[in-house]
Amino acid sequence: MAALFAGRVLVANNSARDELDTERELARCLDNKVLLLYFAAAACPRCRAFSPLLRDFYVRLTDEFYVERASQLVLVYVSRDDTEEKQSRFLKSMPKRWLSLPFEDDFKRELAERFAVAAVPAVVVLAPDGRLIAANAVEEIRRAGPACFRNWQEAAALVDRNFLAAEDFDEVARRSLTDPVRRLKYKLGKKTRDEEEEEGGSAAR
To answer: Which Pfam families did the record assign (predicted)?
Structure first.
């Protein structure tokens, strides 16, 4: 998922306003997680009504007060605000773990076009590999609350790292990436040995 924001900056919604701009930082924050792109504007009445619900939804899935371990969920606020001050004021009332694109970044418009966002509020839900899970999950979140995350998790086929030791997860990744190569090597090696035996047999005859 970090590839979606390659070459971009994401800003952490904390007091230091930390900027994530390296491939490593983006990967650490975004990889193996369901991504929510929240398109909204502070001045929009519908957004003002929905944003507290989304904030509660996110907190109940990620805050240790409610859950033993945070869900594999990350949210990027894609502002449709008309001033940077409005964007900053809005984010101050939202969870510190939210991320956002800088106000001046035109990539916000590109994202809106890519995911056909015509009106706000809109919550686009993406799997870790970039597949679209929901074009707009606003009504689903209103209706089902945090329970809808399980459906997204299943649709995304997430590998839950919390249930795997680090070495186990590395082994899964290593096996999935190298299996085809190793199988090919095995086949080639086996074929070579068979050919050698056949050639040896022919020579003996």
So the answer is: Thioredoxin_8
Q: In sequence order, what are the residues at sequence separation of 6 or more whose Cβ sits closer than 8 angstroms to the Cβ of residue 198?
A: none
Could you report the per-residue pLDDT of 75-86, keeping only the tens digit for each? 999 999 999 999
Please provide the distance, in angstroms rounded to a whole number, between the alpha carbons at the two ends of the chain: 61
Averaged pLDDT, 55-73: 95
120-148, pLDDT tens digit by residue? 999 999 999 999 999 999 999 999 999 99
How far is 95 from 79, CA to CA, in rounded Å? 15
The helix (H) or strand (E) run that includes residue 11 is strand 10-12
Domains of the chain: total: 1
Domain that holds residue 115: 2-156
91, burial (CB in 10 Å: exposed 0-12, middle 13-18, buried 19+): buried
* C-beta of residue 42 within 8 angstroms of C-beta of residue 87: yes
Distance CA 139, CA 156 (A): 20
CATH number at residue 6: 3.40.30.10
Q: Nearest Cα to 98, choosing from 46, 57, 145?
A: 57
